[in-house]
Amino acid sequence: MVQNVSPLPSVDSLLRAPETEVLLTRFGRTAVTAVLRETLSARRAARAFGGPAGEIIEQAADHLAARFARSQRPVFNMTGTVLHTNLGRSPLPWEAAEAAAEALRSATTLEFDLATGHRGDRDDHVEGLLCQLTGAEAATVVNNNAAAVMLVLNTLALGKEVPVSRGELIEIGGAFRVPDIMSRAGVILKEVGTTNRTHPRDYVGAIGPQTGALMRVHQANYAIVGFTAMVPTGILSGIARDAGVPLIEDLGSGSLVDLEQWNLPHEPTPRESLQAGADVVTFSGDKLLGGPQAGLIVGHKSVISAINRNPLKRALRLDKGRLAALEVVLRMYLDPDHLAERIPALRLLARPEADIRATAERIHTVIASRWPDREITVEPCRSQIGSGALPVDLLPSAAVMVGGKQLENIAKTLRGLPRPVIGRVARGRLILDCRCLESGDEATFIAQFAQGKDTADGGEAAPVGRPDFKPG
Predict the structure, then answer these.
(1) Nearest residue to 28 via CA among 13, 15, 9
(2) What pLDDT, in 10s, does the model give residues 372-431?
(3) Distance between CA atoms of residues 345 and 329, nearest Å
(4) Half-sphere CA count of 431, side-chain side, radius 13 A
(5) Alpha-carbon distance 221 to 106, whole Å?
(6) 138 forms bridges with which residues in the sheet?
(7) Quick check: 245 and 214 in contact, CB under 8 A?
(8) Residue 117, by phi and psi: left (phi above 0), alpha (psi -120 to 50) or beta?
(9) pTM of the predicted structure, to 2 decimals
(10) Which one of 157, 209, 234, 442 counts the least CB within 10 Å of its CB?
(11) Which residues make beta-bridge pairs with 142?
């Protein structure tokens, strides 16, 4: 006997259903109609006939939530890397984020001089601050430090040779290499010295009629130890001056202050490089400086003027939102006594170990109650600064450690929470470093553990971005 099955409802009837009204309001008729059709087609293909209309509408709601969910979302960084490139590097101070949002919401004085009523220059919003903070004669900004290096090289040494120590030909994340950016900038790399030892005579011997500039690259994301030698900026600047060519120094991580005041290792600052004789210095805005992504260029006025005349400058310039955020962060450096309180990156780096341990103890209870059959402990660990800053210097920290098997499933569960938790699996344990989990976020972190489905035994995580919707 052939069993009768209920036909699938029509798209029109589903659109008229009272339960669909919330979807129409949130996602619009076009999107809802398309997803309902897709859902019905999928059921037909699977021969899943029948079933209440509410079940079909709920299935469509899940698809709509996933389709409209933002792909870039806030997460809890518990990787142990403070300035994590994949997680956006430095978190902005809320004042800087507010300034960026305000600038993006409305017309601004981006390139307008209120005093004269004529066109202004967007660099004016930050140039004076950069000069004051670094001692430079002039400054300009572009969209990141790689762009800054490329623009400086293209301006000062296009078609010419640039000697660089072999020990400074770095590669950063994403297989981005100094030799490659030099090639794209239109300059000719001339390697000098050896991997571990470079002397003044190596630079002197490399200088010739085709030399356009000398360049030093700060070993920001690695360290060479042992039988080593490098040429200090002060000596190299003298060699460049005698040869009549500029000295470019790329500092990368871009600390504006001496980090030793927070018991962190010293990192060279742009002011120190300029005082030692560098003609132009480049560094990042979103690493140790604690601001938005930007490439900052400071140096002699004649050099900066030449850079600003380069047509590439317009292609690499900052938008109004990041300029607004950068201005706010730079102004914070005018009050150095309160930097660690106001700039999150510095606050997280300087956070006391005892404070981190207390956070780990508090969240240990809720994590242990979620997985009572696992060994879950609070233990000391080491955080790293990240983004190529002070690579061999680790910071005392504390973490919640999860042991057992199927740790990747636990990690997947955490990534499936409404605000994903990103840890790391190493040495047979899931490590949740608590350095970047500040007290203001603890309540959110703990509350969301009551939600979602456990995937520790191979299940699926709860859907992310699901609207608060239950068909009648």
Answers:
(1) 15
(2) 999 999 999 999 987 555 455 689 999 999 999 899 999 999 999 999 999 999 989 999
(3) 11
(4) 18
(5) 39
(6) 299
(7) yes
(8) left
(9) 0.89
(10) 209
(11) 295
